[in-house]
Amino acid sequence: MNDFFSLKGKRVVVTGGTRGVGRAISLQFARAGAQVLANYVRDSKAADELQELAAKEGITLEAVRGDLTTEKGTDRLIEATVARFPSVTTFVHCAATGVHRPFPELTLRHFDWTYSLNVRAFFELSHRLLDRFEKGASILGVSSDGAVRAIPYYTLVGSSKGALESLVRHMAAELAPRQIRVNAISPGTVLTDAWKVLPDREQRLAEAIRRSPTGRLVTVDEVATAAQFLCSDAAAGVNGHTLVVDGGARIVG
Description:
Blueprint: E1 11-15, H1 20-31, E2 35-40, H2 44-57, E3 61-65, H3 71-84, E4 88-93, H4 108-128, E5 133-142, H5 155-175, E6 180-187, H6 201-211, H7 220-230, E7 242-245
Parallel strand pairs: 1-2, 1-4, 2-3, 4-5, 5-6, 6-7
Helix pairs in contact: 1-7, 4-5
């Protein structure tokens, strides 16, 4: 019987793939049989630890450093992809950044920094990899609740995720004739290192747990499993969709 959820033989590029949700996706995909290139920019320790874990498990996962807000960093990831993969079956954009301040304190520099990674890098990498995608390939953007809800101190990140989801819809329609699917996944509140920069972290986490019908936060592994579905043959008919993984929090307000 065919295993439609298997990623065996797939060649995957994951940006922001060595920490948080990206790390969980890189591991989930490699454990499902894929060859994974996990991009990162600063945390060499996290990248080394991930590669060591992959080596122990006997799965194919390699970390590649490159700042995707720069031409040099983007070129480095493209060159590494071309050198290691004859073609690409999956591209997952987890890399994200942002400035968490009240709107009056935000600047154009903050805007450009946030959008350069959260939106521009997704567009540029999808475009530069276009001729290397196999038929049946999948592109996946990682969004957030802020794409559709106003969240304090989240103006730039949230609006950039809204732009990402819009790109996903337009790309999905245009790339479908090439047999390339484009989707997004939108996790609910997930406890990762990204929360450390928020000034009201504890209050928000407590409120997220209170609001959730499940009475808990979703985990990075639950998000990664859903991402595997979207990038597997099981989701062959899913295109231009944003899959929410939040334990039902958004349906109750």
